[in-house]
């Protein structure tokens, strides 16, 4: 059986190794001779506590889900505990009261719990070890054992919670970027080196036809293209830049946009982003040239389609009918298009689309 030092080592290693984290919680459970253990951590942002993340040992995902549905009861219990002190939970809620509660009968008892010891390592974390009635209550020595591991839990639980949140957020963001379609998106750091690219961008790089990724830097097929691309990336002004291609295909259309610190912080979870580069391969889209240009100007697909139809001479009513939306809806979209393209009238928008065509 692992001792406190081994458990501490596993939990610290678990910050970057999920297997070590699970092994550390299991070893702590064994060390306490508990049936199972539940660790709860809630991130605190701007003083507001988020939905807690629950991890355990000797508990299935379904059982963790039951505890998650009882998070309000767990938070009320932990709120009554002194931070940094391990105690039998009966000190907080007398057994005579606890054993009559719905929480005990619906969550604790079905999981094999009856006796328990708990601790609140930090304001936003909580750990409880449980065992069935047949195993008897926890000893004072086991309470001291839990107390001895609290400094490690204090250091690791909040960090682990934050890391898991970042991993989940990053995964969602990556999927969102991949689902955008045929628009290649590159995230670049302060040196304008690539830190992330979506699936469409990977396909553009793999094609090796007009845009290349060499030692972290994006380059064009010719020196002139590379110079123009570098200037575009460093300016980040949103101007269109066409990159010639060795094949007979039409040039790649690119647009680089610098992002502010707040937006950069939100994307930091994928990489230290300072610039977004959008790349469209005209040969891989069934959209018109106007739709291509409109999309690279930052418009949504619906807005780009509307803008393209207007550029082709349709009225707002005709464009709305072709898209399948009301005229009122089309006018709302048009206002957003004006705002995003810094134009004020349809004539200005149409002129911008004609001037921007590759």
Provide the descriptors you would attach to this structure in a database record.
5-stranded antiparallel β-sheet, Arc Repressor Mutant, subunit A, elongated, alpha+beta, 3 domains, 358 residues, Beta-Lactamase
Report what the structure shows.
The chain is of the alpha+beta class. It folds into three domains: 4-171, PHY domain (Beta-Lactamase); 179-284, Beta-Lactamase; 286-358, Winged helix-like DNA-binding domain superfamily/Winged helix DNA-binding domain (Arc Repressor Mutant, subunit A, Orthogonal Bundle), CATH 1.10.10.10. Helix content is 49%, strand content 19%. It has 15 helices and 14 strands. The chain has helices spanning 4-13, 18-31, 61-69, 71-79, 95-98, 102-108, 140-178, 199-207, 223-235, 261-267, 289-296, 301-311, 316-323, 327-341, 346-356, and strands at 36-41, 44-45, 48-49, 53-57, 86-88, 115-119, 125-131, 183-188, 194-197, 211-214, 217-220, 237-243, 252-258, 275-280. It has a five-stranded antiparallel sheet, with helices on both faces. A five-stranded antiparallel sheet has the order 9-8-14-13-12, sandwiched between helices. The model has no long low-confidence stretch (mean pLDDT 83).
